[in-house]
Amino acid sequence: MEEGGESPPLLYLSDTLCGVSNQTDVVLRDLAGEVAALSQLLSGLSDNQWSAVTPAEGWNVADQVIHLGLFDQRCLWSMVDEERFRTDRQEMSVSGGVEGLQNSHRGRSPEELFAWWRDGAQELAHAALSVDLSKRCAWYGPSMSARSMLTARLMETWAHGLDIADAVGESLTPTDRLIHVAHIGVRAMGFAFVTNGRTAPDEEVFVELLAPSGETWTWGSPNASSSVRGSAYGFCCAVTQRRHVNDCGLTVTGNVAREWMSIAQAFAGPPGSGRAEGQFS
Q1: Which pTM value belongs to this model?
Q2: Are residues 85 and 190 in the same domain?
Q3: 276 occurs within a structural domain
Q4: Angle CA(187)–CA(278)–CA(63) in degrees, nearest 5?
Q5: DSSP 53
Q6: Are residues 160 and 185 in the same domain?
Q7: What does DSSP say about strands 216-219 and 226-231: parallel, antiparallel, or unpaired?
Q8: pLDDT tens digits, residue range 10-60?
Q9: Fewer CB within 10 Å: C terminus or N terminus of the chain?
Q10: 62-76: pLDDT as tens digits
Q11: Which range marks the domain in which residue 228 is found?
């Protein structure tokens, strides 16, 4: 990519939303901030780095960006044009699925992919400003609120961004935007058990995390017999399966918590293969 030039639109959008105080718009603001951080990383990559292999098996940097762009686009359709989303979902089921969609973009240059992803993320964020974020939206499983969809996009942007950073030897500075990723991870505990063919426990797990800002975030009762404690960054790496749980610096106490963290996943779909213990320092 050439240095200089126009700033990525999401950097501007993130700034314009910083003064918004209600929780709904905080999700949108933080999504914009996460996209801006990834945009900054991508804008500095060489063409060769776009071909760098990421920790996700079979995917290079370009594949990661394509994946984000495809599902940002479908999130937009679900929020503002549900008929188009449903038609596309049906067509996808008979035309090669996600892999077919990925293949349709793999011939693009890094410059084209970067602009396509960045502009799509901007379009999604602008559209969300005028959407009732409590409304239910169709997706590939159960419907969800528009707010939840945007939170999931934030989680995906951060997690795939971490894969990209790993591939090119860079790092992403942890921010308090991770609270959204952590919240999904906690709320998805039951799903993690079910998708792994196990019975979801009735027992609560107390989660206490140290935020990048130094704040403490908690979920559940501190009197619970099972708990997970540690950094928000480590927890988010574990629940997105970007690091092996044993490499995340977490203190996991109790049988339920130990079983959960061995299979935790904040993303939809079948169980992921995750990362090997010791794969990252």
Answers
A1: 0.90
A2: no
A3: no
A4: 65
A5: B
A6: no
A7: unpaired
A8: 443 444 343 333 444 799 999 999 999 999 999 999 999 999 999 999 999
A9: C
A10: 999 999 999 999 999
A11: 180-263
